[in-house]
Amino acid sequence: MRVLITACTALLSAAVLSVAPSGYRSGSAVVRQEPGLAGKGEPGSAAGEDPGSEFCGNIRNTAFGSGEQLTYNVSYVLAGVHLNGGLATFNTSLEKYQGKNVYHVVAEGKSTHDLFFKVRDKYETYIDTGTLQPYRFIRDVDEGGYKTFENVSFYKATNTAITNSGTYAVPSCVQDVISAIFYARNIDFAKYQPNDTIPFYMFLDRRVNHLHIRYLGKQTIRTKYGTFRTIKFKPLLIKGNMFEGGEKMTVWVTDDPNHIAVRIESPISVGKVDVDMIGCRHLRYPLTSQINK
Question: How confident is the model at residue 268 (pLDDT cuts 50, 70, 90)?
Answer without folding.
Answer: confident
